[in-house]
Design a protein that fits this description.
Four copies of one chain form a homotetramer.
Chain A (H helix, E strand, L loop, with lengths): L5 E6 L3 H12 L3 E7 L3 H11 L2 E3 L2 H7 L4 E4 L6 H11 L3 E4 L6 H13 L4 E4 L6 H11 L6 E9 L6 H6 L3 H4 L1 H11 L3 E9 L4 H5 L5 E8 L4 E7 L7 E8 L2 E5 L7 E5 L13 H4 L1 H15 L9 H20 L3 E2 L4
Parallel strand pairs in A: 1-2, 1-4, 2-3, 4-5, 5-6, 7-10
Antiparallel strand pairs in A: 7-11, 8-9, 8-14, 9-10, 11-12
Helix pairs in contact in A: 1-12, 5-13, 9-13
């Protein structure tokens, strides 16, 4: 099957935008046509490296008539408007998570997305990690029997700057949101949320009334229980593990080794180097796979890209966790 | 330091009673003097194997004047009275967990224990597992910095008979109680309990309104969060793991390998045999260490034996978890 | 099947003799009746702890008419005479390895052993390690297809005193002899030996013309190749691993963990404590199993105890390795 | 430091030639200018994908005046002449291993290489594997004390076709040659070679008088011993491990996991998927690093590229191993 490469407009050229630019340039089915960023220097640098025309105004992309798909990697507050603009222009869009920090704005956009025939995908990159995807496929294939417990350990290497914490929407909407989507990747029907959050080490979290440490439990309609263990720091590096426990077996996803070398001495044996440093390294392959799957979606082919509804569901769970952790109640949820 | 061996009276000769009888016989500082069980055949078999005089009436032991310590391994409902009897007789007592399923009965006994100078120890054997004990000592020594998250995975090989479930007091009082004590081994000051329980596979649990699957989160006064993941079954064998996550590092306690052999084939590599089958095998060394520590306590020496108060605290946490899981509320607790 | 316990005479009460005394005392089918050691204090201490009559003269044991089996744990130079004496007395004997350092003396004894109906077993304890035994049984059952390569890593924690090196017979006869037997446990028909030895760290070895580091390759009649990697020291503790490589899979036997705890920090992750310190700890279970198997042999039951011929074969291989390493030739051997 | 990209001429477009073409295209400091292969279709396909002018005649490359470096990935028999041609043209050359199967031809070329100022590098890609390179650097830094034993396990997934075996030069020159270079990467001064080879499963090897299974031991001038365990097949996938044993510790390089997922069931726990399938996957990163290092060499910068002398030394060791394995002698070597 040969195709003309999909012409991409990239909006936002921060750290994650650059990752997407590189993925687009490396994918034989994609080409970078336009790059927008209000800080036009960034757009120009990305365009110089990976191709395309730079602009400081995303409107130009939609008006160009020269893009087949848009990739939104701009600040969260711009996502809702850019998705709406893409729908209006009839251009498939892959938007970074979260859709928005405010569920009201998400719900306001929801009918438009549902009515439009335009593909809208959410950037939950972890679904495309080969190991997580394999574990989920093996669970779905019945290899471990009924899934009874899903345990997600998810810890970032170090806490973000206090200034970021203040606008992040809180740990559940900013960080756990990936884990909520991972929970739903295995168990879509979550019916109840309980969360506990504490602040044990990060002054930024303390200053902004946020948590740096949290544990969330989710109950699925099937009776399965999901446990999410989060921390904003991890001295050993990026900590991303999953254990799927079923009636007939258990699947574990381990951390990615940063090297194959281990050291044994009189003090300790089989000691390995610390894990991959952060998400760009850990999920490099996943970002490329995410793009390939979105290209299928944009072309109208069968695709497993996470949807707008997946993005909304993760935010509903994050809101419920935030409420549970602050009001000390257990919160029923209806994702339908 | 040489001592006359401590003369033990053993009450109860079921599975766990036999373990203690063997430990007493093997310990150079202990000797089995009396063995009581209403099913006197059991008492006689144990006495024939490990020494001592058999009786069907525990009163004889207290009246004998020939025991220096009593080990209570009889059914839970008898524990409170036997502890009281031991105190009245001035005989140090090591009692299997739990003290009782009813906190009111425990609290009624509490002042007597506090007032008596007689040592009362609780049989929380896992504290004496060399690996758990080492992990806790290393945490206490500051090796991983401040303890921020403690994750306990605790799954039994298979669900007990429905008849047992009916009188067990429920999964939290019967099974998680060990994990509550382990939580307090690392973090004594627990201030809040939240639990979710479901019934996903066990008809016995369903019949008796119990859970077969549960996750409990505990908040410690320090801000640390404990997560306890429980299941009444585990196809891979007895699953007993702990992860202590601190600001400067992480300590993991793995499952005990049942063999050093692993197999690699075209289907899978480094596959190991399933884990140790159950607590008698997994904690064999711990039971012996528990006894040695109790002997020190009985002799008035410095000892780390868990106390009556530890036994009571575990039950308070179990009651709170039961209430949280059934009423869907988060429950503050005061253990003082 | 009930039996009268076998009455053992133990000859030699050094470190390994004490291990056997404890095994005899712990085995319900064995009882320690006599204990001999020219240093009669040692004999008396062992007898006081584990039972039996102490003597400074092993002849008394043979004359007593009160032993059903003899366990020889005395210095190597006495083994041949004691085996002969046991045969003359018609008493089954379990003799520590090696039979002798001089193959001529072994061959002189050989016809007597062959002619006598008296069971003679050799103390190759590692065959009874549950993990090695399991690996060998699985190979024999065809689980990995034809066995093509057997790799044995065998390193002692630290070099013996120079005085011991001088009388040890050299690394191949003293240390590798266990590995030669392990090789033959998997592949009895060895036809060729090649060895290289060097002296890299141990002054004792240098002084006595011995090696502290050696690698031996054996060719089996089947075409399989055995590799034995030895060192007289190992900073990480006793290093005892085997890899059996077959056409359809690989079985690995790992070192025994001394704890289930691992530590992860910013410097290194999953670091475990060093291995078990030495053979008494590593092979504790194996010594007990070795004794049980010998008891079967002594009773005329089916038994897998290593034989005199096994002991001789290991020495033949050790001699060939010594010659290969010193004369720099490859040495064909005929074990028949 | 900015440079004009190095213009490469690639000679040979088989499997390994294509790998190099991709590396050249991906490296910002390199550009593919010419591609030669007598099967000009191959050259054209590579040029179409990665750039450059295709030809069926390598002479055109040397005559073009438009290449700054040559990469030789043609059949072994052509290597000597192409290196000579590159030297005559004054063009730095990176040549795949081995230089030739005949040491006489290598030695005939040797003075020319030594006299010329033209950089000649050999394609021992494994030196550039990040894990092997890290292990070697840590050994060199003294992290494990003096290196006493180096154990290399190196097994290919499956035996090559019989037709290839017939022209391969035999297992030592074709396959072990990589391990000989790895041995010298850690211990350059090898003074003695002993090898045993057998044929246990491969009819192709049997037909051509070659071995499919081999173990080689090397003695280094320092007294360190290298053991190389080879097989032409491995049911678990490409098996590439190293253990560097020193006086103060041990460094292990494990196989590369093909996934982070492991499965635990009632049959087996912690079972992982088989290893990476073969050298293109396992050493993908190494090929790119090898190229970067050669670019430095070609530019006259400090470089760790393996040299012509390294290529010759590996062949000397292979010849010695071949002689040892066939004549059953231990062979001293002088690499100087």
């Amino acid at each position: 099957m040969t195709h003309t490469p999909l012409r991409f407009g990239l909006i936002g050229t921060g750290r994650i935008g650059q990752v997407h630019a590189a993925s687009i340039a490396a994918d034989p089915d994609a080409v970078l046509s336009w790059v927008a960023d209000p800080f036009v220097d960034g757009a120009q640098r990305v365009a110089a490296t990976y191709g395309g025309t730079a602009t400081d105004n995303a409107d130009e992309i939609f008006a160009s008539g020269a893009v087949d798909a848009v990739l939104v990697a701009s600040p969260t507050a711009t996502h809702v408007d850019l998705i709406a603009q893409a729908i209006d222009a009839g251009i498939p869009v892959l938007c970074e998570k979260p859709i928005d920090l405010d569920i009201a704005r998400v719900d306001a956009l929801r009918p438009k997305v549902a009515a439009a025939g335009v593909p809208v995908a959410l950037g939950f990159n972890r679904r495309f990690d080969p190991s997580f995807a394999s574990a989920r496929a093996r669970v779905a294939a019945g290899e471990i029997g009924a899934l009874e417990q899903l345990t997600i350990i998810s810890r970032d290497p170090s806490a973000p700057p206090a200034s970021y914490v203040g606008v992040s929407g809180g740990i559940f909407r900013d960080m756990t949101i990936h884990d909520f989507d991972m929970a739903r990747f295995f168990l879509p029907e979550i019916v109840e949320v309980s969360a506990v959050g504490t602040t044990t080490f990060d002054d930024g979290a303390r200053e902004h009334g946020d948590f740096d440490t949290a544990v969330t439990t989710l109950r699925a309609a099937s009776g399965a229980i999901v446990t999410i263990v989060n921390s904003r720091h991890s001295s050993v590096g990026y900590d991303q593990r999953i254990e799927a426990f079923g009636g007939r077996g258990v699947l574990h996803v381990a951390n990615a080794p940063s090297s194959l070398v281990s050291l044994s001495t009189a003090d300790a044996v089989e000691a390995k180097p610390p894990y991959e440093q952060f998400f760009l390294e850990r999920y490099a392959v996943a970002y490329a796979a995410e793009l390939r799957e979105f290209i299928k979606l944009a072309r109208g082919e069968a695709s497993t890209s996470p949807t707008f509804e997946d993005g909304r569901a993760a935010l509903v769970l994050a809101d419920a966790a935030q409420r549970s952790a602050t009001e000390r109640v257990i919160v029923p949820v209806a994702l339908g």
